Amino acid sequence: MELTNLKAITEGLLFASGDEGIALKQLSAILEIPSSSVVHIVEELKYDYENTERGLMIMQSHDVFHLTTKPEHSEYFKKMLETPTSSKMSQAALETLAIIAYQQPITRTEIEEIRGVKSDRPVQTLLARSLIEEVGRRESIGRPTLFATSKDFLTYFGLTSLEELPPLPESADTEDVEQEADLFFDKFNGQIDEDVTK
Q: Among candidates 150, 169, 168, which has minimal Cα distance to 159?
């Protein structure tokens, strides 16, 4: 495979790995090339980012690579989080919010076990909108962060307490429960957007 294709694939893998990044050994196994070749490709990508007007850079922590934004642009990302938006939350964010609301406090891993997919981005979206917050750590291996809904969550949904959340059917299967919760939050998604833009 040509170096250009390998660079493009590596860049895509770095992006897809999100906050966790991707290890050298994993890249080597996926691309089916020696670790030394992976290092060469990553160095090429680093050079491209550093020597062109790009907004991204590659960070390395031990043997794990991360694709991240440049620190000199941080003020603009802060403005983005502070700027009101009228865009609706994604289905992934709504699903994640429903799970947190009904299962809180809950860890990211537990959320992902329920959804069956990675949930880094939806969790970050909800944190950025102040709909959820970190409330401590689970007393287990690695002491993972626990998430719960915030006071803003109640305000946005017009609730005075979590007890006002609609009850979920006890006898239904997991899929039905998730659909019930999703329908509730989707119903109020437009209301959230109106509140955020006021």
A: 150
Give phi and psi for 56, each to the nearest 5: -120, 165
Give, in order, the Cα–Cα distances in Å from 51 to each of 13, 15, 56, 74, 78.
21, 20, 11, 19, 25
Q: Tokens for 148, please give them.
A: 């719960």
List pLDDT tens digits, range 126-180: 998 889 999 999 888 888 999 999 988 888 877 888 888 877 655 444 555 555 5
- In-domain check, residue 157: yes
The range of the structural domain enclosing residue 22 comes to 3-73
DSSP state of 70: -
Q: In whole angstroms, give the CA distance from residue 128 to residue 5.
A: 35
Residues 183, 100 within the same domain: yes
Residue 57 pLDDT > 70? yes
Residue that is written with structure tokens 């660079």 in the block: 7
Q: Are residues 155 and 125 in the same domain?
A: yes
* Domain contains 79: no
In Å, the largest CA–CA distance within the chain is 59
pTM attached to this predicted model: 0.48
Q: What is the CATH number of the domain that holds 149?
A: 1.10.10.10
